[in-house]
Design a protein that fits this description.
Blueprint: E1 19-28, E2 33-36, H1 54-58, H2 60-65, E3 72-74, E4 79-88, E5 94-99, E6 102-104, E7 106-112, E8 116-121, E9 128-135, E10 143-151, E11 165-170, H3 177-189, E12 195-200, E13 205-208, E14 221-224, E15 236-239, H4 245-248, H5 252-261, E16 267-270, H6 274-280, E17 288-289, H7 296-300, E18 307-308, E19 314-317, E20 320-323, H8 328-341, H9 343-352, H10 377-386
Parallel strand pairs: 1-3, 11-12, 11-15, 15-16, 16-20, 17-18
Antiparallel strand pairs: 1-4, 2-10, 4-8, 5-6, 5-9, 7-8, 9-10, 13-14, 19-20
Amino acid sequence: MVDSGFQGEMTMKKLQQRVLWGLVAVLAVTPLGAVRADDFSDPGDDPMGRKAAPEEVADQSKVRTEPADGAVLDQPLRSVRLWLSEAHDPARLDLRLTGPAGDLPLRGLHAMEDNGLMAFVSGTMPDGEYVLSWSQPGSEGRSRSSFHIARQKDSAAIGDYEAPLDIGVLVFDGVEPLDLFGPLEMWMNAGPDLIRVHLIAETAGPVVVRTVSYPADLAPRLDVPYSFESAPPLDVLMVPGGIGTLREVDNRKLIEFVAARAPEVQVMASVCTGAAILAKAGLLDGQRATANKAFFSYIKGYGGDTEWIEEARWVESGRVMTSSGVSAGIDMSLALMARFFGIEGARMVAAMAEYDWNEDPSRDPFTSNLDLATPSVPALKAALREEVRGDAPGGP
């Protein structure tokens, strides 16, 4: 499922400009990979062809501080970063990554800040030796750097996947607009060659998108193409929140769908009150999780075997990611991108959206809202029951 790269024409201006030629390569591997830089293509040589002192090659702290001293591997996931010293057209650059099983596709070549070049890696990456090589038209031979990848077998992070990453988003009448569209904005900026987004509802067709204070009969409708039966294979399934979760948490078909898809995906995620759906499906048992602070105790009631974290913007627990309320879903969606594509890729997408990403999941400025809305839950549920079904097509 991951095939091709970032849409250059959609990127910010810096991503369309110069690419600088030949200094340091940084290969970021899958989340299972704990990586190290073992050697250069020629012992004692750096990627520029200069002789490097043995201690410079071995001293990883110095390499990380001074990238000009050599090539290193780092842990932002599945991306290659190359710093270059002369301006060149990225479209004319021949960049290759070769591993034990042959060449690995590099997708979405684009410029970064600090005069760098970045591309995403597609394909399975087994342990072994890897070579990153590059050349430009008219140059003699190829510049190259060698790396060794060793994986941590006990890592709880996600495994290999093939591009594009298929993300399913479960929607229902009363889904919160920002819970849904905030993450979609970030993921869709990556382009369909890296991320494909699929909207799924119990029944394909129009779904009401609304906030708690907006009446269903005046709310906009979203045309959802997939039903539970027709939904495609997924790598990630996200459940947003909204007033509709107060009803959907008792929707047997929806809970069964979420529970059935969980073993098939690499990450299960929720935003806001969507955590109640995951908890009801048993997916938060034994996990750490968070949720909308204003409805916190109500949501906790569905997850008695869950370690609920009050002060958290989002929480990652194995293959489960849960976020706090509404806008926190944007921060979590970028964290999910970092998990698959690397921190620099996530930062770049945030910058494209002119969004100030909170990268610290423990920094939650809204804990003072704890349980402010929990006393209103019975009244909100009663209001949902009184709504005319014709005003909310697609509901249970």
